[in-house]
Every structure is written in C-alpha cells, then in structure tokens.
Amino acid sequence: MSETVFTYAAPALKFGTGASGEIGHDLASYGARRILLVTDPGVAATGHPARIAEQVTARGLEVTTYDRVHVEPTDESMRDAVDFARDAGPFDAILAVGGGSSIDTAKAVNLLTTNPGDLMDYVNAPVGRAKPPTARLLPLVAVPTTTGTGAESTTICVLDVLSLHVKTGISHPALRPTLAVVDPALTVSQPTLVTAAGGMDILCHALESWTARWYADFDAKRPEQRVPYCGANPIADMWAEKAMTLLAGVFRDAVRDGGDVAAREQMAMAATFAGLGFGNAGVHIPHANAYPIAGRVRDFHPEGYPGVLVPHGMAVALTAPEAFRFTFEAAPERHVHAARLLDPSVEPGPDALPTALTGLMRDIGIPNGLAAVGYDAGDVDDLVAGAMQQQRLLATAPRSPTEEDLASVFVASMEHW
Ligand SMILES: NC(=O)c1ccc[n+]([C@@H]2O[C@H](COP(=O)([O-])OP(=O)(O)OC[C@H]3O[C@@H](n4cnc5c(N)ncnc54)[C@H](O)[C@@H]3O)[C@@H](O)[C@H]2O)c1
Predict the structure, then answer these.
(1) What are phi and psi of 37, to 5 degrees?
(2) What is the bridge-based pairing of β-strands 156-161 and 62-66?
(3) Which whole-number Å values give the CA distances from 286 to 18, 195, 416, in the listed order?
(4) How many whole angstroms from 313 Cα to the centroid of ligand 1?
C-alpha cells in the first residue's frame, strides 16, 4: 500500500538582525541556570560567542565555553567535546554558536551528556549501532553564523569516523534544536569561500528536497516507522521553491561583496527556508556523493578554512550538475522549473539544471570538478562504494542509482567546464 501521510516538524525560530541579543532572555525562560556554549576557534575569533555569553551572564546565568570544535567534526573531535562537557557539567541547556560544525557538535554533546554510552552506540547503522536515546535531552539553542547547513532546524549531526574514512551521522528527532536564532548580522564576517560553499549547500538542500521522491511514492509506514525525512511534499516544496528564488536574487552578490547586508539577510533567510524544507523532505544523490568526497580528501586546502578538507557545501556541489542530469527523467518539469528559477534563459531539457548550476559555480569560485580537489579516475570505485553506503539518502532519490550510474556521475564530474 502506498503512503498517504507526510509529516512536518521544526524548532521554534527567531529570525532577524538583533535576534541574538535576546538569547539570555530565551534561555532564562527555559529555567536554565548553567549553560554550555559550544563554538569553534574561527567563530570565537569573530567575538560573537563572547558577546552572546556576556549578554547571557548579564541575566544572571552561568556560561561555560567550549571553543575547540573541529571544523567538519570527527568522532575524535566530538568525543573531546563530550568529555569536556561531562567533566565541566552538569548543564541545564546548550547554546551552539557557529556553523554546522559547531551546531552538530553541540547536538552530540547534548545526546551524550544526557544519555549513557559512546558516540558509536548512536551513529547510524551499519557504521554504528543506531540506538535511540532513552533519556530526555537538554534544551538546545542553535545560532548559525554561516548561511548554509540549516543544522539549526534538523534532526541530524554529521561526523567523520576517522578509522573507517567514512562520513556518517546520528539521526533522531530528539537532536533537533529547541530554538533556532538566526541573526544575519552574525554571518557578515564569513570568508568568501565559506559563503560560496555554504550557499551551494543551501541550493542543493532546496534542489534535492524539491526533486526528492514524492512522499506518496513510498510504501505506507506504521506510526513507529515514521522518519524525519518523508520525501518531497507540499510543505517542503514551499520552502524549497522560495529558497531557490531568494538565492537566484542574491547569491552572486553575497559572494562578490560580503559586506552587502541586504544580500546577507536574504542568504540567511534562504538557508533557514531550505533547512525547514529538506529537514522534512530529505536530500539525495549530491549529498550521498558528498560524504566520500569529503571523507577521502588527500591534500586540498581551501582558502578561508583551517587545514585540509573539502568543505561540505563544495563536496555537495561538485557532483550536483551530473546528479541532476541523471535524475532529470524522473521529473522533467520539476528540474526545468528549478533551473529557470535560477536562470530564466536556460533551454528546457536535461541540460537545463546542469547549465544553470555550472554557470553559478563558475561565477562564485567553486572548483571546476572533482579533479580540481585532487581526485582522478582511479578514485571512482572508492567514491562509488562510499556513496552506496548512504542508502538512507539514496532511498530519497527520485530515480534509484546503481553502482554504474553513480560511477558515470563521478566520472562526468571530474571537470565541468
Ligand atoms: N546537521 C545538518 O543538518 C547538516 C547539514 C549540512 C551540513 N552539515 C555539516 O555542517 C558542517 C559544515 O558547516 P558550515 O558549512 O556551516 O561551516 P563550518 O561550521 O564548518 O565553518 C566553516 C568555517 O567558517 C568559519 N566561520 C563560520 N562562521 C563564521 C563567521 N560568521 N565569520 C567568520 N568565520 C566563520 C568557521 O570558523 C570555519 O573555519 C559539515 O560538517 C557538514 O557535514 C550538517
């Protein structure tokens, strides 16, 4: 029997310039006294976390700061944060200030300071044991400083399991933040490439949830089988479409001039909208491919990021044009509609979305394909194997890819223009 039900869930949201000035009030309203603030060194250097901590302590609350979040967190870096919090706690609430790396680390800390065991008990199967939490988590206030991941709205936390060279995650409704505080003023200091990569993450969230398998095309679930990602549906569609329209208007401007406050505000709104959409519909092939692209990096050091990594949004973007060429036949009109929102001049057809995407990627300084971040034809089998492990995501694709299909996508993504 086919599914007839779709679901929608979201955190409470405070959006707008100055919203981060009210966090002390918000935390106090939860009855919290002792707060753990989680951030990374780059965000700490902007002064935003210290200013927020000051404003929270002015309300009579106590703030302890953990500022060692690893950019693109690993199992080791998350354990470091959890150990810190278990030693320094107990806390009444958690406050994440930063990009997806800080927010995801805060989710893991929240899980493992309220529930027993180790990270791998909760990590998605087959990499981990996928246990659900048994005890209630603390209130988590998430304050994004990037315009990208939507992690402030979602139920997942992403991590790199170093010993297995695999990126995976923990996914459970209990991880969703209690309150998302999106203050565009905090995002103005993002480096150019962080803006470009994060923006591609937003765009792919919107495109993948917009083109995801329709919720009614899945088998019917029992109530206890329902998962946060239920496939494309009328509510997620609204968020995705609006996010694409916002991006079409301002993405290039935000990258060209990071001080363009109006563009920053629209980017923050696009990130929020896309997060609310994909956080319920799900994402598919570009995100599945991004996990091995990021997880198997050898020596790519992007400007504006600390160390060797392929930033998440860049990893997602690198195979997106070819992934959408592959999915085109499952829903041609959706692909063309999205392409024309981004670039009204593209001709309808399988090339429409790849053309709109590569034109944008070129303009905003995303590398020209997998070869530019250090991969070659000899890596394709490994990349396919890594992507095939992401069955949770591939199940949301409107057209199920075989290993050969994914190999074709990776090969064609070595160079885009
Ligand atoms: N949980 C989810 O739903 C979800 C969704 C997508 C991605 N992710 C994960 O999120 C992570 C990526 O997060 P991200 O793209 O937001 O970036 P990030 O948190 O990794 O930060 C990227 C860099 O930008 C810096 N930075 C962040 N904000 C800044 C600011 N305002 N000013 C100056 N520098 C700033 C950071 O210090 C860091 O060096 C990845 O690990 C990815 O897998 C999670």
Answers:
(1) -95, 130
(2) unpaired
(3) 34, 19, 15
(4) 9
Cα of 357 vs centre of ligand 1, distance in Å, is 22
Helix (H) or strand (E) segment spanning residue 35: strand 34-38
Q: Tens of pLDDT along 334-374?
A: 999 999 999 999 999 999 999 999 999 999 999 999 999 99
Q: Name the nearest CA neighbour of 275 among 141, 99, 98, 150.
A: 150
Q: Which amino acid is at 217?
A: D
Cα-only R_g, the chain: 20
pTM of this structure: 0.97
d(CA 239, CA 388) in angstroms, rounded, equals 28
Q: How confident is the model at residue 174 (pLDDT cuts 50, 70, 90)?
A: very high
pLDDT tens, position by position, 67-81: 999 999 999 999 999
Q: Which residue has its alpha carbon closest to ligand 1 atom 3?
A: 151
Is there an atom of ligand 1 within 6 Å of 154 CB? yes
**Alpha-carbon distance values, 303 to 197, 199, 368 (Å):** 11, 16, 15
Atom of ligand 1 nearest to the CA of 197: 15
**Longest C-alpha distance within the chain, in Å?**
60
DSSP assignment letter at 214: B
SS3 307: coil
Q: Are 85 and 66 in contact (CB under 8 A)?
A: yes
In which residue are the tokens 């694709």 written? Answer: 397
**Amino acid of residue 113:** T
Whether ligand 1 lies within 6 angstroms of the CB of 184 is answered as no
Distance of CA 356 to the CA centre of its chain: 22
> Using CA atoms, how far apart are residues 268 and 184, in angstroms rounded to an integer?
6
Cα(69) to ligand 1 centroid in Å equals 10
Strands annotated E in 72-139 = 93-98
Residue 358: both structure tokens together = 């590569």
pLDDT of residue 168: 87
Q: Is the CB of 307 under 6 A from ligand 1?
A: no
Per the structure block, which two tokens stand in for 391? 């069955």
Give the length of the chain: 417
Measured from the CA of 48, which atom of ligand 1 is nearest? 31
166 pLDDT above the threshold of 90: no
Distance of CA 124 to the CA centre of its chain: 16
Residue nearest atom 34 in ligand 1 by C-alpha distance: 190
Yes or no: say if 383 and 413 are a contact pair by the CB < 8 Å rule. Answer: no
Kindly report, residue by residue over 6-58, the tens digit of the pLDDT.
999 999 999 999 999 999 999 999 999 999 999 999 999 999 999 999 999 99
